[in-house]
Amino acid sequence: MKSLPKTKTPADLRQVSITTHPGAEEAVTALVGRVSGQTPSVYDDMATGLATVSVYLPLPDATVAATRAALRAGLADLEESGIDAAPGRIAIRRVKPLDWSESWKRHFRPIEIGAALLVRPTWSRRKPKAGQQVVLLDPGLSFGTGQHATTHFCLTQVAALRGRDTGPAPSLIDMGTGSGILAIAAAKLGYAPVRAFDFDADCVRITRENAELNEVAAQVKPELADVTRLPRTSKEQYDVVCANLMSDLLLAERDRILARLKPGGSLVLAGILSTQFTAVEKAFRAAGLKLVIAKTDKEWRSGRFRRA
Length: 308
Prior knowledge:
Elements: E1 13-20, H1 25-36, E2 41-45, E3 50-58, H2 61-80, E4 87-94, H3 97-107, E5 111-113, E6 117-120, E7 133-136, H4 149-162, E8 172-175, H5 181-188, E9 194-198, H6 201-213, E10 223-224, E11 238-244, H7 247-252, H8 254-258, E12 261-270, H9 277-286, E13 289-297, E14 300-307
Parallel strand pairs: 6-7, 8-9, 8-11, 9-10, 11-12
Antiparallel strand pairs: 1-3, 1-4, 2-3, 5-6, 12-14, 13-14
């Protein structure tokens, strides 16, 4: 087994966060996600009753002020629309490489996806159960460790759709692959071909490293691509399409996403705030898809659809 090349933490890595109250948590999460282009994490402080919505970004000094201004403007828009996000405290702090790595080692624990998968970091000695495929994944700047509700849902659906099927291998495309966890899991479960892409070059690089670590580099070859720039039609279609993206992107690019889904195929959608799921479901129902299963976890709601 190869060792994962050590990913150097950028000197300009910063934690960007807004502290708010639970009632505004979903709106603030959407704001931070929109400004950063990443799915935020949320920490609920039981002592203060406040929630801190955060992302980690390689943010050069020159862009800190603009990022802060964009967040302030977003909070002002929320206030105008009747959403009180108090205290609305914005914090942008530099993160030391040691802080980053040691924090993840404290909080990233192995997770099981039913009887099919065990996702664990390289420093864990957890042994898989009989029949479980192991996905090795050390957290990095890219999103996706299986800990987040949306990634966990996608992993569960990818495993469930494969099940104990011994027929022809189904194909899968992972749109916005992040760390590559879904594509790597799919390859381990016997999907073929597996395609993965992301608009972030760092994510593509990290996915490539993770694929090498898991010895599926021949099956998982991540590409640099943007869902908003994909051709509106596609000759290549897949049995399973995974799109763990923000709801506004899912709605705006619905037709590009569906152009890559086979008739009878399954579409796994995540990254959707519960308050926005109805609009997403309505849009994809209008395109002829049927909601098969949905799950709500805190402020997130995810769903699997099937095309007739």
